[in-house]
From TrEMBL:
The species this protein was found in: Apatococcus fuscideae
Protein name per the record: Plastid lipid-associated protein/fibrillin conserved domain-containing protein
């Protein structure tokens, strides 16, 4: 299947978004082609991902093997996390390439590897391309010991702290989580609200050297870096 034919997949039935490890392909010996590993569960691809993958493969040497292309994808993602200056279309393409051949890369997450705080760096589902590199301080915090989770954001004097619990599917490398409380902070004012929101699932297809990549059950791709502070408090986030 040629890259130019990827868009035809969007008209096919899609698998459940939670089973993203089944939404796979292989970068074969020619980096210009994608081969479906599971014809029952075809590659799910959105227009931005199609554009990004095409852009990323276009700058890969034509003689490069699939392994070399994956190594280039890893290098590009690490640079994006560190410097936040890689073209966003290329980053999306590199993420799709890593997700497609997650088994070959061999860096899918175990729960123990996710323990700690992860600074959100990049999201393919940002409302505008300029915000794909996330412009606010936002940490996704996973506490394996307590099975609790938090999403803490800070924008000026306003802070939000979504709190909840999670379960882990080791076979799918999937984190199923939901938030049950929101702590809102404005200057010294703090108020805790109860929440009832649908669960989300993050499928972690890459975790290596403090960089993690995940697919949300809502469809977006995200990239995070490990925050060396471990489980930062709200006060840490405000610094």
């Amino acid at each position: 299947m040629n890259i130019g034919q990827i868009s035809s997949l969007r008209s096919r039935p899609l698998p459940h978004p939670r089973i993203s490890s089944h939404i796979c392909c292989n970068l074969d010996q020619s980096p210009r082609r994608l081969v479906s590993k599971n014809p029952v569960s075809p590659l799910r691809v959105t227009p931005p991902e199609e554009k990004g993958l095409t852009s990323f493969l276009a700058v890969s040497p034509r003689e490069a093997s699939g392994t070399a292309t994956l190594a280039r994808a890893e290098e590009l993602c690490r640079n994006a996390v560190k410097n936040r200056d890689s073209p966003t279309d290329f980053v999306i393409g590199a993420l799709v390439a890593l997700e497609c051949d997650a088994e070959k890369v061999g860096a899918a997450a175990d729960l123990e590897n996710l323990d700690g705080s992860w600074r959100l760096v990049f999201s393919s589902s940002a409302p505008i391309p300029q915000w794909r590199y996330i412009p606010v301080r936002e940490n996704f915090i996973i506490n394996v010991k307590t099975s609790r989770i938090a999403l803490r954001s800070q924008l000026g004097f306003i802070g939000t702290d979504f709190q909840g619990s999670f379960s882990w599917d080791a076979g799918q490398h999937a984190l199923d989580f939901g938030f049950d409380h929101l702590l809102l902070s404005v200057f010294s004012f703090k108020k805790l609200f109860k929440l009832r929101v649908p669960n989300k699932v993050y499928t972690w297809f890459y975790t290596r050297d403090g960089v993690a990549c995940t697919r949300s059950s809502e469809g977006g791709l995200a990239m995070l870096r490990l925050d060396t502070r471990g489980h930062p408090t709200r006060e840490d986030m405000e610094k």
